[in-house]
Design a protein that fits this description.
two-stranded antiparallel sheet; 447 residues; mainly alpha; two-stranded parallel sheet; 6 strands
């Protein structure tokens, strides 16, 4: 059976393929192979630039030809490596043999034993994968995040002056403004994004157990630690972890995933709030011709975009949680469990990007139902009790909290008139009474 969107097991390669396919450039099997080839080629070039005596005769004009091996890498090349892997049963060794074949084609046979020189497979994997994550973050994640953030910032400004009944514990509370409540999410997202920018993209590079054993025994007079740092940081733009075992310790990667999870949790919180506002009739939703909200109830327009986002964020966070808790744990100098789970690193990114797009779609469908905001405020005059008792405290009035409690905890409807009548019973100056009567649920919204 050939793979199509209709028979894919995962929805990110099926139903949601169009929303996540850009990530295939970073997290697919073909992409991983290409990143490995890229690291191997750049490592070989770096050895030439030391230069090692055996590589000193290689003409530097050949570097462009070598880089073309990964710059022009295509699906046929990836398939050729997979064919080699059928014999080697080792994915990184298959990459090495593929590059050696290319060296034969380029007339560089005498240099090909310096491909993968002194390395273990994790020197390639633990640079290729962090590099793919870093570039996916910059190219895909950050633009998607910024689109969500910018949309929320625009809505916070657009709705800055819309008074809204707040609800704490689900009950009517001191009024707020719609724009301010959105600004809360904006600030939360920004603070977590700042933490995200502080997390290094770390990579391991140091041989079979991290000590450059093979490098040092072959060339004892070269400062291999300095070479490794220059290669990882200067050539690849990653942070060089040292010392390590055979593998990257993944602490920084775990921090990245934990921060991505917190950003997702903030958006999940936002999705649930807007879902609730829609259910409260604070918003209508734009209707697209031909769309069906329910298979049985023709009148329905469901907040499915916020629901879709919430579901995808939940799956993404479950995977980010597993990655961040599992990756930093490895038996002794290395076990293989990190390799197994890292093959899934693109999956939570895909669900996150699907969620971003769903949240955006939901936000862009919202139609403000201003009358409902106003009606809820008008129906809840009891919320000005806090304002009245606070001013009475200022004036030294005896037991103001208890006085307002007695008024507002009856079963009678509290409205403008009952509040005004209560104010008239207070033993305060006419000026204070007038000040208190100016307070309304729509005006009592703070700063």
């Amino acid at each position: 059976m050939s793979l199509t969107p209709l028979n894919a097991i995962s929805p990110i390669d099926g139903r949601y393929r169009s929303k996540s396919e850009q990530l295939a450039l970073y997290f697919s099997e073909e992409a991983l192979i290409k990143y490995r080839v890229r690291v191997e080629i750049e490592y070989f070039i770096a050895l030439c630039e030391i230069p090692l005596p055996q590589l000193a005769s290689l003409n530097t004009t050949k570097f462009n030809d070598l880089r073309a091996i990964y710059l022009e890498f295509n699906a046929s090349d990836a398939q050729a490596i997979k064919e080699i892997e059928k014999t080697t049963n080792h994915d990184v060794k298959a990459v090495e043999y593929f590059i050696k074949e290319r060296f034969d084609t380029l007339g560089l046979q005498e240099y090909k034993e310096f491909i993968h020189f002194g390395l273990t497979s994790q020197d390639i994997n633990n640079t290729a994968i962090p590099l793919s994550i870093k570039e996916a973050m910059n190219d895909i994640y950050v633009p998607g995040y910024m689109e969500v953030l910018n949309t929320l910032e625009e809505l916070a400004v657009e709705w800055a002056d819309i008074p809204m009944l707040a609800r704490t514990h689900g009950q009517p509370a001191s009024p707020t403004r719609l724009g301010k409540e959105i600004a809360v999410f904006v600030e939360r997202l920004k603070e977590q994004f700042n933490l995200l920018n502080d997390v290094p993209s770390a990579a391991k590079f140091g041989g079979a157990t991290g000590n450059y054993n093979a490098h040092k025994v072959a060339y004892p007079n070269i400062d291999w630690k300095a070479f490794g740092q220059q290669f990882v940081q200067g050539k690849l733009g990653l942070h060089h972890s040292f010392p390590t075992t055979q593998i990257e310790h993944y602490d920084h990667m775990a921090a990245l995933f934990d921060t991505l999870k917190r950003i997702n949790t903030i958006l999940l919180d936002l999705d649930r709030d807007f879902w609730t506002y829609v259910s409260m009739d604070y918003f209508k939703q734009k209707i697209k011709k031909g769309e069906v909200g329910s298979s049985a109830m023709p009148h329905k327009v469901n907040p499915i975009d916020f629901e879709n986002s919430e579901g995808n964020l939940g799956i993404a966070n479950a995977l980010f949680e597993h990655l961040s808790s599992k990756l930093p744990v490895s038996r002794l100098q290395r076990d293989l469990t990190d390799s197994t789970v890292l093959r899934n690193v693109g999956v939570p990114f895909a669900h996150t990007m699907i969620a971003f797009q769903s949240t955006l779609k939901g936000l862009n469908k919202l139609l403000l139902h201003r009358e409902k905001f106003e009606q809820d405020l008008e129906d809840n005059w009891a919320v000005v009790a806090e304002a009245i008792q606070t001013i009475l405290r200022r004036e030294g009035y005896p037991n103001p909290y208890e006085a307002l409690k007695g008024l507002t905890r009856t079963n009678e409807k509290i409205n403008r008139n009952s509040i005004a009548n209560f104010i008239d019973t207070l033993e305060v100056t006419d000026a204070i009474k007038e000040e208190l009567k100016q307070i309304t649920p729509g005006s009592y919204t703070g700063i």
